[in-house]
Design goal:
alpha/beta, TIM Barrel, Elongation Factor Tu (Ef-tu), domain 3, eight-stranded parallel barrel, about 25% helix
Length: about 400
């Protein structure tokens, strides 16, 4: 019998949520404005949970809530109140603090142990299994052989794509030390990503080939994904709750295809080119095939993406029967052949190419800022945002 794998996608907002579902994920994970490790992401409110549940139920998508920060005594009561409120809307809570685990047990909510706990051996896996964990998210510093051994003990979840932290499973104190913004409370300002001048104790500057000496490349398992499928893990997780919808759309679609069939060498190469179009800091195999080397550190500060997007306006109206959107161009210009991205809370992400435009019934080849145009587009909605894709190559 063919093994079923769960493709777990990040959802930083409703646009990303809908994009992930339309791209083919089996489950989504997200944070609220409280107690999650991406405090700087948009995140959701408790009042959003009924809508999230309704959207996910339509396609049988599992819903996992991250409550994975450290918890202090003064937060215990608010935490318990929140857990009681979220119970009807989620399938499990991803957590790292034992207080959260105990409250999950108290209110009979399944819990998954976060990668923040750095579970990297069989004994630790057994501990959390006896504690009542339904699943554990393994430390990122494991080889595929180690993953396979631990996966015999309890269902496991592993990361397959996205940002890697230079610190052990993200438990870093650099942001706290330098800026009093704790990574373990979801407030990391990512000082590791910055350009550094390295000096010795006497003030002599040391020349290094790569100035981004703390910044790891992104994990990308696509080139060896057939080995990932044989790792024993039941859930494959994509990092990226701070990422944009086009990132979620592209990465989920590509790994959905890789899960459903064995990709040819050509398909892998084509997919890697697509992954390079969205946010990335270069690609690495992480620890899965052996310990990282100096080549696994990034050479860019922010993103190496070959494509970016430029906001050009909001959809004023969509004529469903004609398949035409009305748009006032807010910036720059738009021409036949340009590639577009449509983003909306309900629409998610839709990609299109400009094939025809008109002003007052007259066909045009190019429009400029300030003009109101009719443009042939796939189905979208009033107030959806329209972006032009910019090739950065």
């Amino acid at each position: 019998m063919k093994q079923k794998y769960e493709l777990l996608a990040p959802a930083g907002d409703f646009q990303c949520l809908v994009a992930a579902i339309n791209a083919g994920c089996n489950a989504i994970y997200f944070g609220l404005q409280e107690f999650n490790m991406r405090a700087r992401a948009k995140n959701f409110k408790i009042s959003d949970l009924p809508k999230i549940k309704k959207i996910c139920q339509q396609k049988n998508i599992k819903i996992y809530l991250t409550l994975n920060t450290l918890i202090y005594d003064n937060e215990l009561k608010p935490l318990e109140n929140l857990i009681k409120k979220v119970k009807p809307f989620i399938h499990a809570i991803i957590c790292s603090d034992l207080a959260v685990m105990q409250l999950c047990k108290k209110y009979h909510i399944p819990f998954h142990v976060s990668t923040q706990c750095s579970i990297s051996n069989i004994k630790a896996a057994l501990f959390y299994k006896r504690l009542g964990a339904e699943r554990i998210v393994l430390a990122r510093e494991l080889s595929l052989k180690q993953v396979k051994q631990i996966s015999k003990i309890i269902p496991t979840e592993i990361f397959i794509h996205g940002a890697m932290c230079v610190s052990q499973s993200g438990r870093c104190f650099l942001s706290q030390h330098m800026f009093n913004q704790s990574a373990n409370k979801g407030l990391c300002v990512q000082p590791c990503r910055r350009f550094y001048n390295v000096k010795d104790e006497e003030g002599n500057e040391l020349k290094v080939n790569n100035h981004f000496i703390f910044s790891a490349k992104d994990l990308c398992t696509l080139p060896f994904f057939e080995k990932i499928k044989k790792s024993g893990a039941v859930s494959f997780k994509i990092e990226g709750r701070n990422r944009e919808p086009e990132y979620v759309d592209a990465v989920v679609k590509i790994y959905r295809k890789a899960i459903d069939k064995k990709l040819s060498k050509q398909e892998i190469e084509q997919s890697l080119e697509q992954l390079k179009q969205v946010f990335n800091k270069g690609f690495s195999s992480g620890f899965y095939l052996g310990s990282p080397t100096s080549d696994d550190f990034s050479k860019v500060e922010s993103s190496n993406a070959t494509h970016s997007k430029q906001f050009i306006g909001k959809i004023l109206h969509y004529y469903d029967k004609l398949g035409v959107a009305l748009l006032k161009l807010n910036t720059n210009k738009l021409a036949i052949g340009d590639n577009l991205i449509i983003l909306g809370k309900t629409t998610g992400i839709v990609k299109a190419k400009v094939e025809s435009m008109e002003i007052s019934g007259n066909q045009i080849q190019e429009s400029i800022k300030g003009q109101t145009i009719g443009i042939k587009l796939p189905f979208c909605r009033k107030n959806d945002d329209l972006y032009k894709v910019i090739d950065k190559k």
